[in-house]
Design goal:
This protein has 9 helices and 5 strands; from the N terminus they run H-H-E-E-H-H-E-H-E-H-E-H-H-H. The chain is of the alpha/beta class and about 200 residues long.
């Protein structure tokens, strides 16, 4: 239950730095989103620019910054991904998810053709099925965009994820031996590899 969240920043009550809270168990800081709020999607262009500038300034004080943005190609998502070094597109095998992922990749490639875009398939019934979902998306990208985004990893469907969410705990802390936890760690290991963008 965070004391502060992004809603306070958007309302002008706090800066991003003031909204950041230390998560001691994980060794990182977090700025919580505001569940159920559409304010970020409706933010005025001038305020979005300020938010982006503030984010760039705050990012300079960290080794790495991860933005967890919603699906789609809305102005807010496009603006906040404009200056990132790498973009991880998370998809499931649901047709709407694949369509959203492809649309995002298409628009992002038009705006930033050199951006490092990688794919994670989430909630796959097996690693093999996750790879098949990835290949569906990759073929669309190759056929229409002449681009092959690499597969960063597959995260298998795991009931432990739901249990961790219900208990408001990190999957890796509550169920470190779960299949999905191992998959998340594998994705993180690839991202932290020396050849990964910084």
């Amino acid at each position: 239950m965070p004391k502060h969240d992004l809603g306070s920043v958007l309302a002008g009550r706090l800066t991003l730095s003031q909204a950041a809270m230390a998560y001691e168990d994980g060794g990182f800081d977090i700025i919580a989103g505001r569940s159920g709020s559409g304010r970020l999607a409706d933010i005025a262009p001038s305020r979005l620019q300020i938010l982006g500038d503030d984010l760039a300034s705050v990012a300079g004080t960290y080794d790495r910054v991860v933005l967890d943005l919603g699906a789609g190609v809305e102005r807010t998502v496009r603006h906040l991904t404009k200056n990132v070094e790498a973009c991880i597109v998370v998809s499931t095998d649901e047709p709407t998810s694949l369509t959203d992922a492809y649309a995002f990749i298409k628009v992002t490639r038009l705006e930033n053709p050199n951006l490092d875009i990688r794919i994670v398939v989430n909630m796959a019934n097996s690693t093999h099925e996750g790879e098949r979902t990835y290949n569906t998306l990759k073929k669309a990208c190759e056929g229409f965009l002449k681009f092959s985004p690499p597969l960063l990893g597959v995260i298998r469907r795991d009931t432990k994820v739901r249990e961790a969410i219900r208990s408001q705990n990190s999957l890796l802390m509550r169920f470190p031996n779960a299949e999905a936890a191992a998959d998340v760690e594998a994705v993180c290991s690839k991202l932290m590899a020396p050849t990964a963008p910084r």
